Amino acid sequence: MTVAAFMDLALYDPQFGYYARAPRRSGHAGDFFTSVDVGALFGELVEVQIAEMFSILAGDGSRPLDLVEAGAGSGQLSADILRAAHTRDPLLYSRTALHLVEASATARAAQRTVLGEDAARLASSGPELPESFTGVLIANELLDALPVHQIVMRENGLRELYVHANGNVGLTLREGPLSTPALADYLERLNVTLEPGWRVEINLEACDWIQSAARRLTRGFIILIDYGHEARELYSVTHASGTLTSFSRHTAGVEPADGPPPWLNRPGEQDITAHVDFTSVRMAAEQAGLTTLGMLDQTYFLLGLADLGSPGSPGSLGSKSANPENPEKLGHLKKRLALKTLLLPGGLGSTMKVLIFSKGVGNPALRGCSYRMRVT
Predict the structure, then answer these.
(1) Among 77, 81, 120, 277, which residue's CB has the most CB atoms within a 10 Å radius?
(2) Are residues 132 and 155 in the same domain?
(3) Does 313 lie in the same domain as 253?
């Protein structure tokens, strides 16, 4: 089977898949760490951007606006966003129809509990995007977990890697012809030339996903937050061994000098991920009718939203002194630490990129793009 087919089974099989068997895989007790795991601050900051987007879409105020989270897991990010809206933007809160999109039935079963009192805003929960929606779609670390094909350039042309069961040895990789001409077409569109020996991943599903999302969005915005690179960097000597890897207990798998890669081990028991090609995602989105509003590091996106000097804003740091006996000051200290984790270059701040699209609203200037439009 192709590497993409293997990933699909290992991650999303309804019974044995990694994501299917637990409601949550991230956090200190999980295998990897996301911005949502830092605490509620990430959702509070994202809510500032969603509130601005909803104000652009407000119209006559007579109908709800859809907030769609794809790859929602147990719904923690949406819960943080809704709680912030309930406090700061009650009109936005009252008009929000929440749609949680999650492949795992186990995770979906936990969503109402995670949402708590805000579960009344939940309009739908299922494995597929709504057929039609007007509002904001957000996907935090979704595209990097979509199945990818792995190919290698040889002297006589492109070859694809396939997963084989090899008796007592276990799972191994073998080369064969391309499973679909779409793989060669993908690289040709990017004007990418691979050198002999280079091994890369191609995420056809990410392009299909953004185009499906674009068709279903009648009017509004899409916010993608993920890690990866522009194609010119992803398909270069810097990543000539590919980016496909596994995570278990916050440790990335180490590629052996000889033998099968670690992501083939223990299918269904570890995360498998690859860096996103943002160039192809953007090209597919624009082909489907979306307008690109910005691509930037998470650091600069959140700095545009934080309003650090304004008391009461989600990014307000409060007093620099902290007394464990003073709950308010201790809360300020925790917020400073959370903000540092979200913004720090070299960590989540520069690793995560934010890609924002619009449809049917022109090219508005957004707060999230106001600090600096920069990708490192």
Answers:
(1) 81
(2) no
(3) no
Judge whether 375 lies within some domain.
no
Same domain, 242 and 347: no
Which of the two residues, 326 and 163, has the higher pLDDT score?
163
| Residue 170 falls inside a structural domain | yes
Question: Of 70, 83, 73, whose CA–CA distance to 30 is shortest?
Answer: 73
Q: How many residues does the chain have?
A: 376
Residue 105's alpha-carbon distances to 81, 222, 232, 273, in angstroms, are 22, 24, 38, 21
Q: Tell me the percentage of the chain whose pLDDT exceeds 90.
A: 70
Task: Kindly state whether residues 33 and 153 are assigned to the same domain.
Answer: no
The SS3 of residue 369 is: helix
CA distance 58 to 52: 10
CB 54 within 8 A of CB 98: no
User: What's the rounded Cα separation, in Å, for the pair 124 and 133?
Assistant: 12
DSSP string covering 85-110, please?
A: HHHH-HHHHHHEEEEEE-S-HHHHHH
Domain extent at residue 198:
3-11+147-202+235-272
DSSP code, position 341? H
* Sheet of 245-248, strands arranged across: 251-252, 245-248, 271-273
Give the pTM.
0.91
Express each pLDDT in 165-179 by its tens digit: 887 778 899 999 999
DSSP three-state, residue 368:
helix
171's enclosing H/E stretch is strand 171-176
CA dist list (Å): 98 to 49, 118, 366 = 16, 10, 22
Q: Using CA atoms, how far apart are residues 123 and 309, in angstroms rounded to an integer?
A: 36
* Residues 26-52 pLDDT 10s: 666 666 778 998 889 999 999 999 999
pLDDT, one tens digit per residue, over 182-198 is 999 999 999 999 999 99
